[in-house]
Design the sequence.
């Protein structure tokens, strides 16, 4: 990603952090955080990655909720970012923490099995 795309992504992340958190709070979806924003090289598309914690509100349903509010959120981005064209925004679920937890469980299981083998010898 170019330096300009990184700067635009940073501004978009700042602009959307509070509205996304407020939408989560208003809809009892727990805590939602904008974890990353990736912009295309031509700055016409911004992929926004969201992490959702807590409550029994399915994260995929929250992403759908964000998609339903996409035009309002895009308008906020347009006010924050001075560009010829406001980037189209798309929301994605950031499941990095889930993947880390899964990998950690696999490592713990392997350590237990290794310890069990060592104790048998």
Sequence:
């Amino acid at each position: 990603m170019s330096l300009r795309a990184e700067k635009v992504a940073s501004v978009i992340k700042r602009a959307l952090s509070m509205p996304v958190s407020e939408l989560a709070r208003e809809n009892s979806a727990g805590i939602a955080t904008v974890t990353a924003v990736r912009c295309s090289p031509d700055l016409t598309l911004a992929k926004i990655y969201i992490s959702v914690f807590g409550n029994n509100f399915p994260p995929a349903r929250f992403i759908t909720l964000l998609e339903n509010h996409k035009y309002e959120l895009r308008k906020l981005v347009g006010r924050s970012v001075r560009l010829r064209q406001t980037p189209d925004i798309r929301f994605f679920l950031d499941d990095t923490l889930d993947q880390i937890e899964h990998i950690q469980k696999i490592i713990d299981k392997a350590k237990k099995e290794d310890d069990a083998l060592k104790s048998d010898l």
